[in-house]
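Protocol step 4 of 5: obtain the predicted structure for the target chain.
Materials: sequence only (see below). No template structures provided, no constraints applied. The aim of this step is simply to have a reference model before the mutagenesis design in step 5. Sequence pasted as it appears in the construct record:
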Amino acid sequence: MIKNITNVRGIKCWGAHSGVKSLRRDLALIYSEVPANGAAVFTQNKVVAEPIKVSRENIKGGIVQAIVINAGNANACTGQQGADGAQAMLKTAAEALGIDQKSIIIASTGIIGEPFPTEDVVKGIIESAPKLSSKSNAGSFAANAILTTDTFPKEGFLEFELDGHEINMGGIAKGSGMIHPNMATMLAFIATDVAIESKLLQKTLKEVVDRTFNMITVDGDTSTNDMVVVMANGKAENDILKSEKDKGYDVFKAKLEEMMKHLCMLIVSDGEGSSKFLEYTVKNATDEVTARKICRAVSSSTLVKTAMFGRDPNWGRIVCAAGNADVPFNFEKADLYLGDDKEMIQVLEKGKPLDYDRNYMKRVLRESHIYINLDLNEGKAEATGWGTDLTTDYVLFNSVYTT
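Step 4 output (structure tokens):
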């Protein structure tokens, strides 16, 4: 059986149907047998869901032993009733698992503004806690239980060596629409048995999120519920990582980035109504922040997305979007390429348009995976982002989301 998050030492999971959603699992538990050092980043939306408020406080202690996620209801804009529901989730999980409330992270995903189904969720937690398991199917149950409009579960697993110790890392994520994280509903939960201090883990998570989850977009909306959580329980028994200079730290950071990139790409590939996976690269920028901002501006452009949907090689939209990134660059030095995994066609050289076969380019743009590379020729920094086209199917789907 394919390995997943339950193959991390000391990690148990379960995913159940509590009744919030019809006929699908809608409640997930991720549990560490021992308290784990934890880190998290949350949505930058000024309107936040009730579980975000709770989890922001709990993560300050740096310890995470359990994560509880419900699907089908976002518990956002729900007032006191929703706040009480979030506290009920926390209290029930602590009692059912026999652990400190402050070591629990809670998350919700679903429709905003609907009364929170506290009774169903609480009952689901009580019934699920005794079923926690380290079997692979339990991890897959959890991955399925956090889905909303997703068409498939998103899982990942890595094994690697760190200073003579075997390290395991597993993750699950969800996201299909309302994807434009800035740390869609976008949730990701990663567990590893590496030993690392929580402060260093938090710093590392933030840096890696900036290069991965904060570089994806489907529709330009940052959710009220976005959350990425990492728990590291130390069961691998490596010498605890305390500093970026410690032996093995660079390996751990690279593997965490690999895991997050994998989950990111699964989320984008499942974008609501999308027909294309778009990969954007900005090369040779003066610094990484500039590269990321330009990359985000282009990938977020509605006009670029619609052009790619229509297989229209209207590259002027790309450079226009780059110019809206609010960072300086010299367009007269820029080169631009469009293509697929077989061929990249240059359409711009040092700011001047090149002749190309428009009909041939339209055939290239029929492919499901399209690459857009902008070379600024001003430095050595680079950034990559991922997104989708914007289709009529997306508009139709989201025009009747609650009806």
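Step 4 remarks: DSSP finds eleven helices and 15 strands in the chain. Confidence is low (pLDDT under 50) at residues 178-184.
Proceed to step 5.
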